[in-house]
Specification:
alpha/beta, hydrolase, about 190 residues, binds guanosine-5'-triphosphate, Maf protein, 7-stranded mixed β-sheet, ITPase-like_fam, 6 helices
Length: about 190
């Protein structure tokens, strides 16, 4: 059994999809305190900060798993979770017809080891259909998602090329975690 220290439904879905037994608890960490404009550093520091907060709150008797995800545009702009529908429209419009990277960092700590991994999945999207985008905005499914993006949903039909795991893009590179989670089961 491991503890997913995250409020993310997407991360819980991914662990379930891979048949990993877990309990889910939320963790409070203010990502606004992170001062960097480098996306890979941002997610690493956020994931590390969440782990430190989880250790303080839950102890370390159970293996703790934390993660953070952002989108980086081709220009290096960090796109986080949209603040509102207007922000979602702005952020998603930046991704339309563009190349982006979804970067996820995980921290997985047990009594025996600390595993960390920062991975990216790179997408080239076709231009989003305006009416389709408006319908997606109306659906509010973009809420709580880095860049308002759903690679398995709204964005899927626009994918012209992809390089990397879909799980990384959804917020948790489970394939990279699996060997370490298996170790814990021994
Ligand atoms: N379903 C889906 N979720 C995505 C996608 N891209 C990013 N996400 C989610 O976007 C969220 C990024 O915000 P984070 O700050 O990393 O995590 P959170 O949801 O706030 O949850 P915490 O771990 O409690 O901080 C995560 O829940 C990711 O799982 C995607 O393409 N599909």
């Amino acid at each position: 059994m491991i503890c997913l220290c995250s409020a993310s439904e997407s991360r819980a879905y991914l662990l379930e999809k891979f048949g990993i037994e877990f309990e889910q608890k939320s963790v409070d960490f203010n990502e606004d305190q992170i001062v960097t404009d480098v996306a890979k550093d941002f997610v690493y520091l956020a994931s590390k900060g969440k782990l430190q907060a989880a250790e303080k709150r839950y102890g370390s008797d159970i293996p703790l798993l934390t993660a953070d995800s952002v989108i980086a545009t081709a220009e290096g702009e960090i796109l986080r979770k949209p603040k509102n529908r207007e922000d979602a429209r702005r952020i998603l419009s930046l991704q339309s017809g563009s190349c982006i990277s979804i970067i996820s960092s995980v921290h997985f700590k047990t009594k025996a080891f600390l595993f960390t991994n920062t991975s990216a999945t790179h997408y080239h999207f076709a231009k989003f259909d305006v009416d389709d985008l408006e319908a997606y905005l109306e659906s509010e499914l973009w809420q709580g998602k880095a860049g308002g993006c759903m690679v398995e949903g709204f964005c899927k039909k626009y994918i012209k090329s992809v390089d990397g795991y879909e799980s990384t893009a959804m917020g948790l590179q489970v394939e990279a975690l699996l060997p370490w989670i298996e170790w814990v089961k021994q």
